[in-house]
Amino acid sequence: MADPARDALGAAAAPEPPPGSSPPGTGDGAAAAGEAAAAEGAGEGEVRSADGEAADAEEPGLQAGAARKVKLELKERKEKKQKVDEDEIQKMQILVSSFSEEQLNRYEMYRRSAFPKAAIKRLIQSITGTSVSQNVVIAMSGISKVFVGEVVEEALDVCEKWGELPPLQPKHMREAVRRLKARGQIPNSKYKKIIFH
Predict the structure, then answer these.
(1) Chain-centroid distance, C-alpha 50
(2) For 151-157, what is the mean pLDDT?
(3) How far apart are CA 182 and CA 164, in angstroms?
(4) How far is CA 171 from CA 147, 152, 164, 167, in A?
(5) Using CA atoms, how far apart are residues 147 and 185, in angstroms rounded to an integer?
(6) How many CB atoms lie within 10 A of CB 171?
């Protein structure tokens, strides 16, 4: 049986619920726990949600201010990037307009050249044993193009140093690869360095 003295003290200490709300003991237990947590946090300058997440008492104003700040930062970044892109385009146009006819033809061939994506995809899949996404194929194709450009550039230097004229021959390419390996720009897959003996 309930103690009448305790019931009288509990009723006097408990605040009156606002009109239209359900009396304690009825309704969802999680909602009651959330209300209790909100009441506890309100005294400390915090409001707690039903999930127990803390938020500032001025949450809507702070969130709106933070959202505006983030939007402004994003807009500034976008404008800055667009300006940098426009500057790069302008510099490239100036550079391309100063090319000679031969340089322009070489540049056009460089821009058009690409490895076949299907062959790159087959090669990657045969090495890794898994299927790869189109983005990986595009990235590997670009890396391969840069690598071939470096080898050809070195081969042209070799050809010039040997006092020969282009077109490049296999001996120029072999010497270029040898030099790049000596500089450490091409990894040697056959030789494994042993760090610890």
Answers:
(1) 34
(2) 95
(3) 23
(4) 18, 12, 12, 11
(5) 10
(6) 13
